[in-house]
Specification:
single chain; 191 residues; alpha+beta; Double Stranded RNA Binding Domain; SHC Adaptor Protein; 2 domains; five-stranded mixed sheet; four-stranded mixed sheet; 4 helices; 38% strand; globular; Ribosome hibernation promoting factor; ribosomal small subunit binding
């Protein structure tokens, strides 16, 4: 497994990196058979250290956790415990998807844009509004099943996930509703 351990405006020493690799490797080894990459970022927010970890699994899932504490090692331990709990909760589902998927998930490329909010014209003119593009970047869209997309949404801290449905190849969206349920948008079924 590849590790990417870094700090945002703080120095991360070799001892902390070794500790993170050993502890996180042990957690991931218990629950996931083929992890591909772990990204751990440490930062400081006021008087607290913050540790954010994302583990990419070959099944296409990403598990994310975040921990806060007054000391940097304690922040990592908090994050590690949350990751452990998350992976333990979804262990059966992760293993089942792993057995059904012999090859890693394929990702397709797509353009992603960040747009500035538009303001209504003051003079009441209903002229054509053209949003200003602030940033343009490439994003990856996984080809997964609806069940895997829902599990990915539950594992991550995302509010929505855009994916290519393996069943029919169309683009779908799953999202977290305000009532706590998960919604699924499948444009192919609307006629």
């Amino acid at each position: 497994m590849r590790y990417q351990i870094s700090g945002k405006q703080i120095d991360i020493g070799e001892a902390l990196q070794t500790h993170v690799k050993a502890e996180l490797g042990e957690v991931v080894e218990k629950y996931a058979q083929r992890p591909t990459e772990a990204v751990v970022v440490f930062s400081k927010s006021a008087h607290e250290y913050v540790c954010e970890a994302t583990i990419h699994l070959s099944t296409g899932l990403n598990a994310q956790a975040k921990g806060h504490a007054a000391e940097i090692y304690a922040a990592f331990e908090s994050c590690r415990e949350k990751m452990d709990k998350q992976l333990r909760r979804y262990k059966r589902r992760i293993r089942n998807h792993h057995q059904n998927r012999p090859a890693p998930v394929e990702f397709g490329g797509a353009s992603s844009y960040i747009l500035a909010p538009t303001e209504e014209p003051e003079d009441g003119d209903s002229g054509e509004l053209q949003p200003i593009v602030i940033a343009e970047m490439e994003t990856k869209i996984p080809s997964i099943t609806v069940g895997e997309a829902v599990m990915q949404l539950e594992l991550g801290s995302q509010r929505m996930l855009v994916f290519r449905n393996e069943g029919h190849g169309g683009v779908n969206v799953v999202y977290r509703r305000d009532d706590g349920n998960i919604g699924w948008i499948d444009p192919r079924n609307s006629k």
